[in-house]
Structures are given as C-alpha cells and as structure tokens.
Design a protein that fits this description.
The protein is α+β, with helices and mostly antiparallel strands. It contains 26 helices and 32 strands.
Length: 791
C-alpha cells in the first residue's frame, strides 16, 4: 500500500470547502459559549502574523468548546467607521465607502486562511445603516435620559491645514499631516455623561474575571479620590477660585495658586501689565497636548498680577498660570503646597516663591506644624478637622473626585454615524423620531475636513435643511458625526440578533446568548474601548434592553509579536505577511507556531526558524497515524496509561491557557507514542484520541486524519476526551544511578518498589564500576535517583 503524504495544500482546500458545505457548529440546543475577538479596523493595512495570534487563540478556544458539547457563537465583523478608514481614503484619494468595501474584502480573504470557526452569516459592519440605526437609537435614548449634552470644548487645530486634528494626529505639538504647529480651537461638541456611571464602573471591576493589570488601568483612569473642595477669595474681585485637594491638612502650607491656562478667570485676573504675557502663554500652551504637558520636566508659568487669600492663614497668595495644571482635571485650579508636593516645589524653587513645611515628618506618619490651633494633629485627624472648619464657615466641603471626564462624543469628520438630532430655533435641540432612523450618511464627493472646523456634512445644504419633528418648522440637522468608538461600544450585542430590524435585540435571544463568555484582544484597548463598552452596557441595563451589567465575563489580552525588538507595524517596515508562510507550510503549521512562540499573554519575538520545527512535528504526527492506521493492536494498560496522560497534559494546559506548552506537549507525546508503536504497536483508541485533541489546533489535518482512520463524519462531532487519573499511574519508573554525583546508568524498577530493592538493583547496574571502591554513603531520592558516594 502506497504511503499517504501530508499534502497540506490539498488537505486544507478540501476541508474548507467541506466546512462551507457542511458546517460543524449547528446544534443550537446545546448550551452556548460566546467567544469573541475584538473586531478589526479595515484601514487598508494587510494582516500580519501579529494579528493572527489573537485570532488563532480564540479559535482554538471556540473549537475546544465545540468538542466539549457547546454551541459556539464565534462571529466576526468590521469596525469600519472612524479615523483610520478615513485617513486611508484621504491618503489614497479614494472615497471612504469604496475604500472600506475594498479593505474589508481584502482582510476577509486573509482571515479565511486562519480557518477560524467564524459564522459569516452573522458578519456586520459599523458602516451598515441597518447596524448604525441602532447606534443612533442608543444615542437618542441617552439624549432622552439626560446623558447627552452640548458643550464648547477646545480641540486640536492646524491653522495651515485648517482642519480639526484628532489627538493621535498631533505629534510633539505639530500637525502630523504638514508638520506645522497645532493650536487649540473652541468648537461645539456633544458630550456623553459617562461620569454619571463612574462609581458603578469602578465598583463592578471587583467581580470581573479580567487580568488584574486591566482592572487597575481602568481604576486608575476613573481615578477616585477623597478630599475637600475649598473656595479662595480673590482680592478686588467678587469671583472665587475653587480647588479640589486630597490634602486639606496642608492648607496652611499653601503659598501660591496656579490656574490652567484655559481657566475661565485667567484673562479677568491678568492685570494690564501682565495681559500680553498671559495671552502669549495661553497661545503657546494651546500647541501642546495634555500628555506632553504632563510629561514636561521644565516648569513654566506667568504671574497674573492678582492675589488670592489663604482661607485659614489669611496670607496673600500670588495667582499664576502654568501648563502643568489641566483645565479638565479637578477644577482647573490648584492650591500650591511646595513644602509637600514635588511639582509645586519645583515651581516655587524656580520662581522664588515661599516654601513652608506644615507636616513633620513630611509623610503620613507626621503631625501638623505651623498650622495654628491644628498643630499636633495627625494627617488623618487634620484632614477631618480642617475640612470641618471650612464647612462650618461655608467655604469648603468634603467631597469625592474622579479623574474620569465626560466623553467628547462628536467629530468634525465625514466618515462616521450622523448624530440623530435636529436644531430648531423654536424647540431647541430635538431627537430624530425613532421611526425615522437611521439618519443615513449622504454620499459626497468632497469628504475632507472643512477649513472652518465644521464637519463636511455642514456643506450639504439639501441634507442639513429639514423640518422640526415637533413643530414642523424649518430646522437643521446636527452635522457632527459620532466617534469611532460608538459602534464598538455595543456591537457584541448585535451579533446575537444581527437581522432584527424591529429592536436592537430580541429579549429571548439576549437571555439565551449574552453576555460574551470570552473576549480576546490587545491590551491597548484596556481603557477606552472596554470602559465605553461597560458604560453602554450599564445604560442599556438601566433602560431594560439587557439583563446584565457587564458585557464580557472573561477577558484575555494576547501579547504582541515583535520583530527586531519592535512591535510589528507597516510604518516600521518590519511586518511579516502570513500569506507566504501559509503558502509554504500551510495554515495549520502557522496556527501551531503562533501558539508555540511563547506564553500567549506575553510579547514574543518573531523567529521563522521555529516554523520549520512545527512543520516537522506535524509531518511526524501524520506519519504516526498513517503508519498505525489499519494495524491497531489490542489496548494494553501501557496504552491506557500513555493515553490518559496525554489527555491530562493537553486538557490541563489548555485550562490554564498555556497554549505554548500544549504544542510542546503534543510534540513530547507524539515522540512517546511513536516509540511505543514501534515496540508494541498502537491501539485504535489512542490514535483517535490524539486526533480529537489536535482538532482545535490543526483542524484541517485533524479532519483528514479522522477520515483516514475510517470515519465519515467530522472530527468536530466527537467529544473532548476525558482522563482518568487512576489509569495514569506508571507501572515502572526510570531511576538515575550516579556515582559521586555523575550519571552512570538508568534503571527501570516497579513504581512501588521498596528502597532496599531499588538500591540493590542500582548496585547491580554499576557492579563493574564499584570494583575496588568502597561505598561510604547511599543517597536515595524516591522515584528519581540513587547516588553512591564512593572512595
């Protein structure tokens, strides 16, 4: 009989066609397992091997769950609105709609090579009006519940390009497009009041089965802190400066104040001789992003010429502006205590301002000094006492503060969901009636940002001009669009009921399918996307759309794949295309190598030398099955022992998501099984077991081997094998025999052999070497080694 070769090209083509014609994941009566990848941006960049890592891992989980008796929901879609897609279109002079369709087709073809268990019938795109109808519907509900409001906000602006810039388009204070200096421009924005959910977003982290690192990142982003709000009077002005501080016990050490350059009182407090200097500083600060401002080492600032009054000491405090204070954190103003704050100390030292120590020693163990009647109080006692005094005088109160800020939800861009609101002179802002959703994005020839800062939609008068749904008078549509995060904040709900045009999701389907059981994606989305998705889910729970408050039961963040020590990216020129590797070695080889390259949660360095080793392993496993199929022997206890140990190792390693050791486990066990087959033959059940275990990892090859062993149904219609620990015990064990610590022999003894019997067998094995020597000590490590110390 001619030996069957591992022809991966023929095999993979055959089984993809077979799965397409006869899907393996169709039994909806089973319990559900919802496994989801963070859907990709079809931005024009081809998939590289780094992208494959997360997709392969989630598919292995999905296929294992299928074998474990679940009906698996494993969908895929496209996060296609937003800046990446629009920038690609602008750079390539293609309309975003056309570019998005082309890029989706290209990326989908590449995803097909992974052979993931995706249900393409559930495919969705955030740009599909049937999808964003419900994105708009959610916004309307938020508007009706008071969570959406208008506010004028400073945005990044390039005077040369005359466009609004996203934060990621500002690099070191310069426009990424032209290299010219960026500035700030105040524009009308729609905001979402995510801060109303701050406490719930923070508290509910405790119950999540998420990586601790991600939970800490979200907690830090929300940034809850306890302290006091304090009002400072201003000499010669009726206004007050309000600050938030976590250290009211240091109030006697406040020797000056600093406002953010954008603070509303700055120009009012600038004296005539200081106004020009202040205006220039405000302009200069506007060219620097908040991130860069906080990272600056050198402290800069301008004294406004005005003074505040310390409410407890009565001292005059100079009022300054400096870019190390941000308008959108706290109140945009701080009391400066240079004796106990590093940034304030640097500022005071540079500008010659007073420094007073008021806690001794200057840490949490200290007591208050130079603080009048509060002297001698501990830090904790001082916080309470000072706050109580301020509250009694009506100039302060105990309060809780959050770093979290409301979400700037509008963009002055074309490629996004239209915000479904109408501006009416008589009625104000009213939502588009729900039965008129979706408000579709009109097709335009010119989609570049305008030179006024308005959205390109503002130029389409036929679309903008409409009638008010409340009073039927002339009105105008909102022309800002939603941010890229809008669709991704709820898309995971829609997969479950993707064709429903009557409601966001059918309640019965929601109860059966959701929430997501396992969510896989990069840690770069730890804060924004995941926080926004949690916010949306809690809101939808509040209005009765879903019956759960957290969208993702378990989260896994795969590590990046680097090349030459750097993250793979097109801009760095270090990407590796999976296409050539699949062409040379096959999809199953690349799938296994993506898992074998290292612990899946850790970053890994790409090294193509390892691919050849994985390919050799698959050929060896293929040969093992091919050589022993049709020649199966009767099962022996030794066969059972090896089989149950195989099942145990693969199962427990997968339970720990140690995918790299799963692959090494397959290699180890294939070697053991091959050796045993040569000596004693191999039983049919063990052959079939390793094929089933292999199926989630190398599905094409497993299907072919399953067919080779005489089956006419899919291997994925089988059940994941179970191990019995009582059958894993070794009948015999290998003992290392040493002399003076050096290896001399290996002996095989009964697993339950007594110590004296083991020592006797060891002496026999090295009898020739012991001649003329005296054993001065016998060392026995049960189950492992014997060492004879001789002289």
């Amino acid at each position: 009989m001619q030996e069957r070769k591992y022809n991966f090209r023929q095999i993979e083509q055959k089984w993809r066609k077979n799965w397409e014609e006869r899907p393996v994941n169709t039994d909806t009566t089973r319990p559900k397992f919802y496994c989801l990848d963070m859907f990709p941006y079809p931005s024009g960049d081809a998939l590289h091997v780094g992208h494959w890592r997360g997709y392969v891992l989630s598919d292995v989980l999905a296929r294992q769950k299928l074998l474990q008796g679940y009906h698996v929901l494993h969908p895929m879609g496209w996060d296609a609105f937003g800046l990446p897609a629009e920038n690609f279109a602008i750079q390539n002079n293609i309309h975003p709609e056309e570019a998005t369709k082309t890029n989706i087709a290209k990326m989908k073809a590449q995803l097909m090579d992974i052979a993931a268990l995706y249900d393409w019938d559930l495919e969705l795109s955030t740009t599909d009006p049937a999808f964003y109808k419900w994105t708009q519907w959610i916004f309307v509900q938020m508007f009706k519940h008071g969570l959406a409001y208008e506010k004028e906000m400073p945005l990044n602006w390039c005077p040369a390009c005359k466009v609004v810039l996203a934060n990621e388009e500002v690099v070191a204070g310069a426009c990424e497009r032209c290299g010219g200096a960026s500035t700030k421009k105040n524009l009308r924005q729609w905001m979402l009041k995510i801060t109303a959910y701050a406490e719930r977003l923070l508290n509910d982290l405790n119950g999540l089965d998420w990586p601790d690192k991600v939970k800490k990142m979200q907690a830090d982003w929300i940034g809850k802190s306890y302290g006091a709000k304090i009002d400072f009077e201003i000499e010669g002005h009726d206004e007050k400066i309000t600050v938030f501080t976590t250290r009211p016990d240091t109030l006697f050490g406040a020797t000056f104040m600093v406002l953010a350059p954008e603070h509303e009182l700055v120009l009012k407090l600038a004296t005539e001789d200081k106004r020009a200097e202040a205006e220039q500083y405000i302009k200069d600060a506007g060219t620097i992003s908040n991130v860069d401002r906080m990272a600056k080492k050198d402290k800069t600032g301008v004294f406004l010429g005005s003074y505040a009054v310390n409410p407890v000491s009565g001292q005059r405090l100079q009022i300054w502006i400096s870019d190390y204070v941000l308008a959108d954190y706290g109140t945009g103003a701080i009391m400066c205590v240079p004796g106990h704050d590093e940034r304030d100390f640097e500022f005071a030292t540079k500008f010659g301002l007073p420094i007073i120590q008021v806690i001794d020693p200057p840490d949490d163990t200290g007591v208050m000094i130079n603080s009048d009647k509060f002297n001698g109080l501990t830090v904790a006692e001082g916080k309470e006492a000072v706050t109580a005094e301020l509250a009694a005088r009506g100039i302060g109160e105990k309060t809780t503060n959050y770093k979290l800020r409301d979400w700037v939800f509008s963009r002055q861009r074309y490629w996004g969901e239209p915000i479904p609101l109408i501006h009416c002179d008589a009625c104000g802002v009213v939502p588009v009636p729900e039965d008129q959703l979706p408000v579709t994005l009109p097709h335009v020839d010119s989609y570049q940002p305008t030179d006024t800062g308005d959205s390109p939609l503002a130029l389409i008068t036929d679309w903008v001009n409409t009638t008010c749904p409340t009073c039927d008078q002339a009105a105008k549509r909102e022309t800002n669009t939603m941010p890229q995060w809008a669709g991704s904040s709820w898309y995971f709900l829609r997969y479950a009921d993707v064709n429903n045009d009557k409601e966001l999701i059918n309640p019965e389907i929601m109860k059966k399918v959701l929430p997501v059981d396992y969510y896989v994606g990069g840690i770069e989305h730890a804060v924004l996307h995941l926080l926004y998705a949690r916010f949306y889910t809690k809101f939808l729970y509040d209005i009765g759309v879903v019956d759960f408050v957290e969208p993702f039961t378990k989260l896994f963040n795969q590590g990046m794949i680097n090349k030459d020590g750097k993250k793979m990216s097109k801009s760095k020129g270090n990407t590796v295309s999976p296409d050539d590797i699949v062409g040379k070695y096959g999809s199953d080889t690349l799938r296994l190598y993506e898992l074998f390259i290292g612990p899946p949660e850790m970053d890994a360095e790409w090294n193509e030398n390892g691919i050849e080793g994985v390919f050799r392993f698959l050929n060896k496993l293929w040969k093992f099955v091919a050589d022993n199929t049709g020649k199966a022997v009767k099962t022996t206890p030794r066969h059972e022992q090896l089989r149950h140990k195989l099942i145990y190792d693969i199962t427990t390693r997968m339970d720990n998501l140690s995918a790299n050791t799963v692959v090494s486990g397959f290699m180890e066990h294939t070697n053991k099984l091959t050796d045993m087959a040569r000596a004693d033959g191999m039983d049919k059940e063990t052959i079939e077991t390793i094929i089933i275990l292999l199926a989630p990892f190398a599905p094409h090859m497993a299907e072919e081997l399953w067919e080779m062993t005489g089956h006419n149904t899919s291997v994925f219609h089988q059940s994941w094998p179970q191990y019995d620990e009582t059958k894993m015990a070794e009948d015999t064990i290998t003992i290392v025999v040493q002399m003076n610590g050096k290896l001399r022999e290996n002996i095989h003894v009964a697993a339950d052999a007594a110590k004296d019997d083991v020592l006797a067998a060891a002496k026999v094995s090295v009898a020739g070497r012991l001649e003329g020597l005296t054993i001065v000590k016998e060392i026995y490590v049960p189950g492992r080694l014997v060492n004879f110390v001789v002289k």
